[in-house]
Amino acid sequence: MGRFQIYFFVFLVASFAIMQLSTVKCPSACSVRCSATHHPGNCMDVCIDCCGKCLCVPSGTFGNKDECPCYRDRLTQDGLPKCL
Predict the structure, then answer these.
(1) How confident is the model at residue 5 (pLDDT cuts 50, 70, 90)?
(2) How far apart are CA 67 and CA 73, in angstroms?
(3) Which of 7, 37, 56, 77 has the fewest CB atoms within 10 Å of its CB?
(4) What are the residue ranges of helices labelled H in the chain?
(5) pTM of the predicted structure, to 2 decimals
């Protein structure tokens, strides 16, 4: 393998490791985010999906979306906020 290929491979492995470490925290962050809802199962499904894509969850149970712009800016097909 050439030097570039080795660096690229190392970069891919490191990126994957970082993604895995970050998504491990999603369930606990989403548990806090969804703790006050009347639909905890739906909230957790959406939150974990958003967290997995954005690698962050705003603090608290409502609002604070400026802490995580990706979470704030994701929209449904109808143009409504995707992440709760």
Answers:
(1) confident
(2) 11
(3) 77
(4) 3-24, 26-33, 40-54, 69-73
(5) 0.71
